[in-house]
């Protein structure tokens, strides 16, 4: 990276909707700290259109040439999931820090392969989990640390979204080889990451999943019961079949219930604190008077990432901190497909659910899946 007084040189890979809709506006919001020097996409016309719109000088159709010519400090990956691992490794090998859209990669094996290319002091790979960065989440996390709400007991984590049949006509969607999973992997991952940010490490999961309505290889709905190291229990539902869409998390502590309801992002107004009867009127249990309203956003996560780059330290949503939710998703699929409860401390570093998220013998959307699951349990 250049001197601390200079702007960080950023390059973007992928010129689709997530780049134009989220990352380029985010980079623009931090233009005092970061300069977008290049964008790459296999579609040259799209590159030209996006580069013209955002005033980006470097235009490439090949990541290797872009890295060689532009020498960015920060590489931002806005590609389909199947391309994440290659982009992450190329960026790290070129000496760039990398910020990658969700899901991080397709498997735990891929995640570990990427991590092997990080340096002791960087560059580091980090992943887009923006919901944990808003002021509401940070307030609740601090209250958990300070034990002002009592012990966490029960939680609910719902990602109830709606994706049409046409949504899955995009060739890479709904396929294990290119998306890595269904709504657990590509949609609910944000809410689940926030759940773990607040409650900490999970210890075991029991799950079911199936394809009930969409023409996909993966699931279109999953449900899971989860235990945590702190003794709490949670119920998780991920769906793309829900016409009234909502993202909802609820945390029941001994002394209060804390809830957040939104769709794709929250601010302070999305949160409510309800004290238990014995804590009525106690400000410590009824919420907080925020000093500032920081929404969950790419903008806030990028601010922290830029701070980490300046300090030369690992950012949040990176390393083991970024792996936790991917471990959970692998265990969720293993539980759903085998009919067994899966403990985190028994996750294997080899085998079906390390090198993949899915056993091909388990066919979603078919009566055969139940038979396979029952046969495995027996």
Automatic annotation (TrEMBL):
One Pfam family linked to the record: GFO_IDH_MocA
Protein name: Putative dehydrogenase
Limits of the GFO/IDH/MocA-like oxidoreductase domain: 138-245
Keywords: NAD
Positions of the Gfo/Idh/MocA-like oxidoreductase N-terminal domain: 8-121
Any one GO molecular-function label of the UniProt entry: nucleotide binding
Gene source species: Nesterenkonia xinjiangensis
């Amino acid at each position: 990276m250049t001197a601390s007084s200079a702007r960080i040189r950023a390059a973007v890979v992928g010129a689709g909707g997530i780049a134009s809709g989220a990352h380029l506006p985010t980079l623009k919001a931090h233009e005092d700290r970061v300069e977008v020097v290049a964008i790459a996409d296999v579609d040259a016309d799209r590159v030209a259109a996006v580069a013209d719109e955002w005033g980006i000088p470097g235009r490439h159709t090949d990541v290797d040439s872009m890295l060689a010519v532009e020498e960015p400090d920060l590489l931002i990956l806005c590609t389909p999931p199947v391309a994440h691992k290659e982009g992450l490794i190329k960026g790290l090998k070129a000496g760039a820090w990398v910020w990658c859209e969700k899901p991080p990669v397709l498997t735990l094996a891929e995640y570990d392969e990427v991590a092997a290319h990080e340096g002791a002091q960087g560059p580091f790979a980090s992943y887009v989990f923006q919901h944990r960065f808003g002021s509401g989440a940070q307030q609740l996390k601090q209250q958990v640390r300070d034990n002002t709400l009592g012990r966490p007991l029960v939680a609910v984590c719902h990602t109830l979204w709606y994706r049409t049949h046409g949504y899955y006509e995009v060739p890479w969607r709904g396929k294990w080889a290119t998306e890595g999973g269904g709504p657990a992997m590509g949609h609910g991952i944000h809410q689940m990451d926030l759940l773990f940010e607040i409650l900490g490490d999970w210890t075991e999961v029991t799950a079911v999943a199936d394809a009930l309505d969409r023409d996909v290889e993966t699931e279109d709905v999953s449900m899971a019961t989860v235990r945590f190291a702190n003794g709490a229990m949670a119920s998780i539902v991920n769906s793309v079949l829900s016409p009234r869409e909502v993202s909802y998390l609820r945390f029941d502590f001994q002394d209060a219930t804390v809830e957040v309801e939104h769709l794709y992002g929250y601010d302070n107004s999305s949160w409510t604190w309800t004290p238990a009867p014995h804590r009525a009127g106690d400000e410590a249990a009824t919420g907080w008077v925020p000093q500032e309203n920081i929404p969950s956003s790419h903008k806030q996560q990028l601010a922290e990432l830029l701070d980490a780059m300046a300090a030369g330290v690992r950012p949040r949503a990176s390393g083991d901190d970024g792996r936790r939710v991917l471990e959970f998703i692998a265990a969720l699929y293993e539980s759903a497909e085998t009919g067994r409860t899966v403990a985190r401390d028994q996750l294997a570093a080899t085998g079906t659910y390390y090198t993949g998220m899915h056993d091909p013998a388990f066919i979603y959307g078919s009566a055969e899946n139940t038979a396979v699951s029952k046969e495995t349990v027996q």
